[in-house]
Amino acid sequence: MLSVNFMSRIVTIKEFCNIAIDYWLLVADKAILKIPTGKLGFKPTEESRTVAELATHMYRAAYMLTRVVAIGVFRERDFQDLPFNPTQAQTPQAIVDYGCKVKQYMRDTLPNITEADLNKTVWYRDFTSHGISDWSRTGWESLKTLLEEILHHRGQLFTYLRLMGTTPPNLYDHTPHTS
Q1: Cβ contacts of residue 158 below 8 Å, gap of 6+?
Q2: Domain-by-domain residue ranges, the chain?
Q3: Is the pLDDT of residue 2 over 50?
Q4: CATH for the stretch 6-163
Q5: CA–CA separation, 137 vs 68, rounded Å?
Q6: Over the stretch 86-130, which tens digit does the pLDDT of each residue have?
Q7: 3-class DSSP state of 121
Q8: Cα–Cα distance, 73 to 64 (Å, whole number)
Q9: How far from 149 is each of 8, 38, 55, 61, 105, CA to CA, in Å?
Q10: What is the pLDDT of residues 8-63, one digit of tens each?
Q11: What pTM, to 2 d.p., does this model score?
C-alpha cells in the first residue's frame, strides 16, 4: 500500500466528491429525468426498490455520508433536516429537485471537512426501522463509501431505464441538463 500524506489524501477525497457532484450526479439527474411518466413505481423484481426509491436512496445516502463526517453521528431522524419521501414523489423532476438540495448541502459542507474529520470514527445510530444496529467507520471510509454508492446506484438507474425500454443518457455527457 502506498503511503500518502494526510493533506494530499484530504484534497484527493474532496476533489473526488466534487467530481461526483459536478459530473456523476449530473448524469444521474439526466437518467432520473428520463424515467417515463407513470413509471416511478417500476421495479425489476418484487424484492427490488422502485426506481423512485432507488434514485431517492442514492441522494439520501450522499446526504447521510457527507453529514456524518461533518457532525460525527448520524441518526435516522437526521433525514428530517432535508426531508423527502420517495413514495410521495410524483415526478422525476421532484426527485432531481431533492437531489439539487443534497448537492448544495454537499457543496456547502465539504470545504469545512478537515483531516481530523477524516481520521475520526463516525457513528450511524438508531436505524431501527431498517432493522440495522449501530455501526461505525472513519470519516475517510464514509466519503469513500459515498463515491461507491453514487456510482453503484447511477449504474442501477441505467439498468432500470433499459428494462423499462428507455435509452439511458450518455454516460459521458456532462453538459447541464435542461428541465
Answers
A1: 31, 168, 171
A2: 6-163
A3: no
A4: 1.20.120.450
A5: 10
A6: 777 889 999 999 999 999 999 999 999 999 999 999 999 988 777
A7: strand
A8: 10
A9: 23, 26, 11, 7, 17
A10: 666 688 899 999 999 999 999 999 999 998 999 999 999 999 999 999 999 999 99
A11: 0.90
Q: And the C-alpha cell for 21?
A: 457532484
**SS3 for 122?**
strand
Residue that has been written with the C-alpha cell 447511477 in this structure: 154
Residue 108 is predicted with a pLDDT of 97
Provide the residue type at 175 as one letter: T
Q: What share of the chain is helix, strand, coil (3-state, %, to 5)?
A: 65, 5, 30
CA distance 139 to 145: 10
Task: Give 164-168 contacts, CB < 8 A, sequence gap 24+.
Answer: 164/35, 164/36, 164/39, 164/42, 164/51, 166/34, 166/35, 166/36, 167/34, 168/31, 168/34
Q: Which residues of 13-30 are buried (b: 16+ CB within 10 A; e: fewer)?
A: beeebeebbeebbbbbbb
- DSSP class of residue 91 equals S
State phi, psi for 135 to the nearest 5 degrees: -145, 165
Q: In 3D, which of 87, 16, 62 has the Cα closest to residue 154?
A: 62
127 Cβ partners below 8 Å, 6+ apart? 75, 76, 133, 134
Q: For the segment 62-88, what is each residue's pLDDT rounded down to a tens digit? A: 999 999 999 999 998 898 898 887 777
